[in-house]
Amino acid sequence: MGSIMKRKKKSYFLLPFLFLISILLQKPTSAAKKSYVVYFGGHTHGSEEAFLDSYERVTDAHYEFLGSVLGSKEKAQDAIFYSYTNYINGFAASLEEEEAMEISKDSSVISVFPNRGHKLHTTRSWDFLGLERNGRVPLNSIWSKANFGEDVIIGNLDTGVWPESESFREEGMGPSPSQWRGICQDEPEKGAGCNRKLIGMRYFNKGYLSAVGPAVSAASARDTAKGGAPNARAAAYKVCWPPVNGSECFDADILAAFDAAIHDGVHVLSVSLGGGPTDYFKDGVAIGSFHAVKNGVTVVCSAGNSGPDPGSVSNTAPWIITVGASTMDREFPAYLLLSNKKQIKGQSLSPSGHPGNKYYPIIRSAQAKAANATEDEADLCLQKSLDPAKAGGKIVVCIRGNNARVEKGEVVREAGGVGMILANDQATGNELIADAHVLPATHISYSDGLALLSYINSAKSAAGYITSPKTDIGTKPAPFMAAFSSQGPNTITPEILKPDITAPGVSILAAYTGASGPTGLAFDDRRVLFNSESGTSMSCPHVSGIAGLLKALHPEWSPSAIKSAIMTTSRIQDNLKEPMKNSSFLKATPFSYGSGHVQPNRAMDPGLVYDLGANDYLNFLCSLGYNSTQIATFSVEPYTCPSKPAKLEDLNYPSISIPNLAGEITITRTVRNVGTPGTYSVRVEEPRGVLVLVEPTSLKFDKVDEEKRFKVIFKAKERNLRGEYVFGRIIWSDGKHFVRSPIVVKTVMHKP
Ligand SMILES: *[C@@H]1O[C@H](CO)[C@@H](O)[C@H](O)[C@H]1NC(C)=O
Ligand SMILES: *[C@@H]1O[C@H](CO)[C@@H](O)[C@H](O)[C@H]1NC(C)=O
Ligand SMILES: *[C@@H]1O[C@H](CO)[C@@H](O)[C@H](O)[C@H]1NC(C)=O
Ligand SMILES: *[C@@H]1O[C@H](CO)[C@@H](O)[C@H](O)[C@H]1NC(C)=O
Question: Which stretches make up the Subtilisin-like protease fibronectin type-III domain (predicted)?
Answer without folding.
Answer: 650-745
